[in-house]
Structure formats: structure tokens, C-alpha cells
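Audit log entry. Action: structure prediction of a protein-small molecule complex. Ligand: adenosine-5'-triphosphate. The ligand was supplied as SMILES and no pocket hint was given, so placement is left entirely to the predictor. Protonation state taken as written. Sequence taken verbatim from the request; no trimming, no tag removal. Recorded inputs:
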Amino acid sequence: MTDLAPSRRTAARRASDQVSQDPARSGRASLATSDRLQDEAPLGVDARRVRWTVDGRLVLDDVDATAPPGAVSGLLGPNGAGKSTLLRLVAGVQRPDGGRVHLVGGPVPEPGQGLGQEQGEPHVRTEDLLAMPRRRRARLLALVEQDAATDLPLTVLDAVLLGRTPHRGLLAGDSDDDRAVAAAALERAGAADLAGRLVGTLSGGERQRVHLARALAQEPRVLLLDEPTNHLDVAAQLATMSLVRSLAAQGVTVLAALHDLTLAAQACDHVVVLAPGTDGGRVVAAGPVEEVLVPEVLDPVYGVRTTVLRHPSTGRPVLTFEPA
Ligand SMILES: Nc1ncnc2c1ncn2[C@@H]1O[C@H](COP(=O)(O)OP(=O)(O)OP(=O)(O)O)[C@@H](O)[C@H]1O
């Protein structure tokens, strides 16, 4: 097994040194700002033959799913297909009954291919996410859950500062650096004006931005998002997907469960389609947007008739649906 984060601290220190030497720069290089992460090759996610059963019912059946490094991947599928479950399994919030989830420090092999290491190709470095100590996993990967509510009387700023926990000593308080990262994360998530509010008093859309800011403050290399736009107005949806694209440009790997297939077509590089079945959710298609978001794949999965149009300025697919 190879350590996939060899120089994070060095990179962060070098970045903060650069900031302190350059008064024109207002933040440090981190996910909270839009500076590119330094010395850090993006990490992919490779889930193989993942199974999960609850109350004797198979929810995910031998699911193979990948998120290529530094790409935005959409996890798609109808209600109940198992998208949130798969994200929670990848994040280590729940344990699968079978299969494995690896971080991959090189090109992610296609399902059906072995991992490079097994084939004697040492350039593909992997690390078992499920066996990883919790704290280390939290430094590498963040999950923003759907409708994550809290009853704790926390201010927004304190909630976002919780994202710094994996990066500091067990008994250490918030440092100036933690507070700077949290403030920049709030700014980047469009939630800076909420910093002093109690989280419990926020609207659904406001809360969603705050949870995203908490995840940014965590400075993960892999960001898992469960329906990140479901409470957002149209401008906020665009802002969120544009933020997701800029995170990927910084080298963050994003895997996002999405219901809006046109939004997925505009923002994703890669998509994975899960379909529910009587014997558990399965992946029915995965690959580039242009190959997967087509009527042949979507119609049977969603039980609709899909038409693929073209966006007048981006040329990317715009999908419309009619009853089957
Ligand atoms: N803790 C649990 N106990 C019982 N059933 C569960 C549990 N977690 C998930 N399920 C079931 O597993 C299936 C998949 O749920 P999941 O939330 O992963 O689907 P989803 O694709 O995210 O759905 P949606 O699009 O509606 O959010 C559903 O039938 C759900 O009821």
C-alpha cells in the first residue's frame, strides 16, 4: 500500500509561506480558495463488487463504480436506486457487506480490469479506504449528505470550523489558519453572510451552502455530494456546479448524486447510472456524458421517453422527457 498524501503538510506550509510573503494575496492555497493544490496528484475512487444489505434486503448488488481523478462524476438513477447508500459506503459512514473501495493515485481501471498493482503495474498506487483510520480518511475525503440537519445550537462559523477537526491535534483549539480557511470556505460556498447565524434557523438552501462550506474547510482530495442542488434556486444551482467544476480544476475528484440530468450533462465529465432492481441496485451504464446520457440508457431506467437537444452556447446535451 502506498501513502497517497506524502507532501500535504509541506505543500500547505509552502503555500502559507507564499501568502505571508505576498501581501497582495488574501488567502492561502487550499480548497477554501481557488488556488490550485500543489504537489498533489488527484486521487480517483474505485469501488468494486460493493454489496449492502439492510433488514435482509439487498440494496446494492455487486456495484462497480469509479470516479476518475480530478473529474466531476455524476451518480445518477431513479429514487431508491442506491445513490446515497453508495456515497455513504464510499465515505465509510456505513460498511459494505462485500466488495472494496480504493483510492487510486493514477488512472482508474475500467470495471472488469484488475487494479494495476494486481497486474504488476506499480505506477497505479492504491489505498484501501475502508481499512483507513477514520481521521486520515477525513483528511482525504468529505461527504455532504442530503438534508443533513442539526439540532445543535451551533453558529454557521462553528459548524464550518468542525471541518478543520481532522487537520488539528486532538486537544487543539481553532488556530488563526483554521479560522482563515473557514472564512474562505464560507465565502467560496456563497455563505459568508450567514457566518453568525444559528444553523438550525437556516432555510434548506442556506443550510446546503453551509454544509458545502464545512466540506471545503475539510480540504478533501475527494468530495462526495448527495444531491448538492436539490434545495437551491436556479442561480445557486449554477453557482454550485461552477464551484464543483473549479474544484475539479484544482485537482479535487468529485462524485455527486444528481437528479437533474441536464445539470449533470452540463457539469459532469463522467456519469454512473444506477438502477434499482428487485435484487438490489446495479450499475447499468458508466462513462462519458455523451455516451451514457442517451435514450437507449435512460428510457428503460427511468421509464420515460428522452429527447436529447443541444445547448445553444455550450453544445452539451439538454434532455427533455415525456411519459413512456
Ligand atoms: N437504513 C436503511 N434502512 C432500510 N432501508 C434503507 C436504509 N437505507 C437505505 N434504504 C433503502 O435502500 C434503498 C436505496 O436508498 P438510497 O437512499 O440509497 O437511494 P437513492 O438512490 O439515494 O434514492 P433517492 O434518489 O430517493 O434519494 C431504498 O429502497 C431505501 O429505502
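Audit: result stored. Residues 54-55, 59, 77, 79-85 surround adenosine-5'-triphosphate (CB under 6 Å). The domain at 39-150+219-323 is CATH 3.40.50.300 (Rossmann fold).
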